[in-house]
Amino acid sequence: MFPLVNGAPPLVADTVLLRDRDGAETIVVCVKGTFDIDESGSPILSSEQQPLTVLPTHRGAPGQSSLIAEPDIGLPTPSTDVTCAAVAYAPHGTAVRCLDVSISVGRISKTLRVAGDRYWRSGARGHSISEAIPFERVPILYERAYGGRATKIDGSLDWDERNPIGTGWCCEPPRDGQLLPNIEYPDKLVRSWKDRPPPAGFGPIERHWMPRRTLAGTYDEEYLKHRSPLPPVDLDDRFYLSSSADQQAGRRLVGGEEVTLVNLTTAGFMRFAVPKLRLGLSCHIAGSVGYHAMHLDALRIQTDSLRLEMLWRASIPCHRKSHKVRRINVWAKEWLFEHDRRVRQAATV
């Protein structure tokens, strides 16, 4: 951890020596900032900064629970990865059977429909869906989105490769009382047990889930002979983005983008701006100094705790020169200076 300006709480930073997709050595600098959203809807740098992670974090056992976040330490991503850990809240605390929730970040806008628990019922006319049970809050998790596993009559296991931990997957007519998903896209609702809607959520997607897995490239015999252990030549850099395609910024966020949350907080509606924290670095290597911009690789919104995490990365080419790195200085401008001004102004009131 290191202070970026005097009097400001520290951010968390680390460096790691990695190889790029062609095997060249590169130093990756990672900086992470944690922000609390106050009652006025303004992000304030938290006094408790979250540490950088080197492994994926899950809600429970890996492979059996949803992913919370990809590792912080890693190569830069091609654009800003926007994810959200969210809870749907009924307006004014009055239980509802169904409601829409939405999030927008800059040009990203996404709406999901949340329903209370529902079940399949069988009758003379086939299978129907029960009325939803009223709810006051429902966590937006892939465990509650369409997907999951099912056992066929012959005893074999079938699953949804897009979301194997989900709910509602049917490979044969459902049994009475089988749960349907709580989280869906408004225009892709389950109406028949044969429907296969896309899993809906705001959180990150596992690397082995479809369709993210298709971006990983080709690992065939040709790859094993001539390319391993480097990534395959047809690997798409978007593979390193954990958000679903409709949450990817396309171009990087730079700070100042407006964030809007609807029915994802107890207040019902919240609006704030992404902090304008611009980072850069200077690297003293082999007797020369190079300057690099740090890019915002990840924005993670936690609506229940009203917290933001921002992750910046920069890569410094240093093939066969890593032992000659003498010093790396990270500097900040704009937001932290404004933050420092607000703190000093509040202290004089």
What does the model show?
This protein has 349 residues and is mainly β. It has one domain (12-348). Helices cover 6% and strands 38% of the residues. It contains two helices and 23 strands. The protein is flat. The model is unreliable at 1-9 and 335-340 (pLDDT under 50).
> How many individual β-strands?
23
Count of alpha and pi helical runs: 2
Helix-strand category: mainly beta
Q: Any low-confidence stretches, pLDDT <50, length ≥5?
A: 1-9, 335-340
Q: Which strand-content bin applies to the residues?
A: 35-45%
- Reading the helices and strands in chain order gives EEEEEEEEEEEEEEEEHEEEEEEEH
List the helices and strands and how they pair.
Layout: E1 12-19, E2 25-37, E3 43-45, E4 57-58, E5 67-69, E6 81-89, E7 98-105, E8 108-115, E9 120-123, E10 126-129, E11 137-140, E12 146-147, E13 149-151, E14 157-159, E15 167-168, E16 183-184, H1 221-226, E17 258-262, E18 269-273, E19 277-285, E20 288-293, E21 295-302, E22 307-317, E23 325-334, H2 335-348
Parallel strand pairs: 6-21, 12-15
Antiparallel strand pairs: 1-2, 2-3, 2-22, 4-5, 6-11, 7-8, 7-17, 8-16, 9-10, 13-14, 17-18, 19-20, 19-23, 21-22
Short synopsis of the structure:
The protein has 349 residues and is mainly beta. It contains two helices and 23 strands. It has one domain (12-348).
